[in-house]
Amino acid sequence: MVNKTGDEISALGFGAMRLPQKNGKIDRKNAKKLIFHAIENGVNFIDTAYLYGDSETFLGEILTDELKSKVKICTKLPAINVRKYEDMEKILDEQLKRLNIGCVDYYLIHAVDLKNMNRLLKRDLIKFIEKAKSDGKIRHIGFSYHGPKEEFSSIVDCYDWEMVMVQYNYFDENVQASVEGIEYAASKGLGILVMEPLKGGILAGNMPKEAEDVFRKANPNKSNAEWALEWVLNNRNVSCVLSGMNSLEQIDENLAIADRTSPMSMTFEDLQTVELVKRVIRNSLKINCSTCGYCMPCPQGVNIPECMKIYNEKFLFNKKGIVSQSLMDYYQYVGGIMGSVGNAGKCNGCGKCLRKCPQKLNIVEELEKVKKEFEFPGFKYTLSFAKHIGFPIYKFIIRLLN
């Protein structure tokens, strides 16, 4: 239950930020099948945002009146887009039209820290909230937090919020809101919505062998995703865990985990196992990026999350060789062979991404590391060669060399 609202919401919510893509757009047929399957099996909370591409419009297209009665829809006001009071009203009205609804169940002020919140307060944010509520355009109000933990309680205390969305997983338990911040918000009656429980998938996929060995020794039948979701759901203050699921199997697995996990159910030995795995991953992860995508779009076309993901995976999973698997991934996914060109070398250091990063990473410096790792002299010529002979043939040649 979300404390102040009294709503009964499912422990697992559907995060609509990372819906499956096709040709750079939402794969509507596949995504519709996933969302319907989730709703049919008990998920009753769907999270989207103004900045999530055409996610809002897509949901407005597929959710019939009958389905809308079965779910709570959460969307967000983009703090970064607000310059004056009128912007807030204009954006909300546009969102209602996109979602094809008259009232948003849960409306969050998106990606705020103390500086952003103070800026919005000076533009009469409270007046906007109260008017939107009295006009019947929003039911419940909250914020999603992307600042340092020292500022969190000040934002909790600045208004009578009903819920907050925070990044929370076993790897990042003390960043942003932190465990203490979550406890404080819950003590004020706020519902706690959790984003990034799997850290952009890093905690659910393959891990360094040492980490895998720790988990398998503790329980050979438990998946990495189960360890991660169970750890989040173990916190008694968590109301709903949001997961961006891209297959029916993921939905079924996550639902099963949520169904059999209750707060405070993990044993001391389980918690120690997770702590040990966290240390192993921390020693291997080079850039603390969750691939959330808030830094996007890049004015120069750099695919920042994918660049950092590939860079991290090289060290997490020891992808080495004369030419590593990671380099081939780099050629495919940001070099332009399997999509648009978005390599780190396109960065011109403008810094527009810096203020948008929830982790407060120096993205310009991190992209320089990625460039040095993968874009050796002759990178463009090698890329052109791979495209010319066909990348499958190129991969075969490289594997023979390795």
Task: Describe what this molecule looks like in 3D.
This protein has 402 residues and is an alpha/beta fold. The chain folds into two domains: 12-283, NADP-dependent oxidoreductase domain (TIM Barrel); 304-401, no CATH class. The protein has helices at 28-40, 55-62, 65-68, 85-99, 114-122, 125-134, 149-156, 178-187, 209-218, 224-233, 248-260, 268-284, 304-316, 325-333, 363-374, 379-389, 391-401, and strands spanning 12-15, 21-22, 25-26, 45-47, 72-78, 104-112, 138-145, 163-167, 191-195, 238-243. It has an eight-stranded parallel β-barrel with strand order 1-4-5-6-7-8-9-10, surrounded by six helices. Strands 2-3 form a two-stranded antiparallel ribbon. Strand 5 (72-78), helix 4 and strand 6 (104-112) form a beta-alpha-beta unit. Helix 2 packs parallel to helix 4, helix 7 (149-156) packs parallel to helix 8 and helix 13 (304-316) packs antiparallel against helix 14. The longest helix has 17 residues, at 268-284. The radius of gyration is 22 Å and the shape is globular. Mean pLDDT is 89; it is low at 396-402.
Write the layout of secondary structure elements.
Elements: E1 12-15, E2 21-22, E3 25-26, H1 28-40, E4 45-47, H2 55-62, H3 65-68, E5 72-78, H4 85-99, E6 104-112, H5 114-122, H6 125-134, E7 138-145, H7 149-156, E8 163-167, H8 178-187, E9 191-195, H9 209-218, H10 224-233, E10 238-243, H11 248-260, H12 268-284, H13 304-316, H14 325-333, H15 363-374, H16 379-389, H17 391-401
Parallel strand pairs: 1-4, 1-10, 4-5, 5-6, 6-7, 7-8, 8-9, 9-10
Antiparallel strand pairs: 2-3
Helix pairs in contact: 2-4, 7-8, 9-12, 10-11, 13-14, 13-15
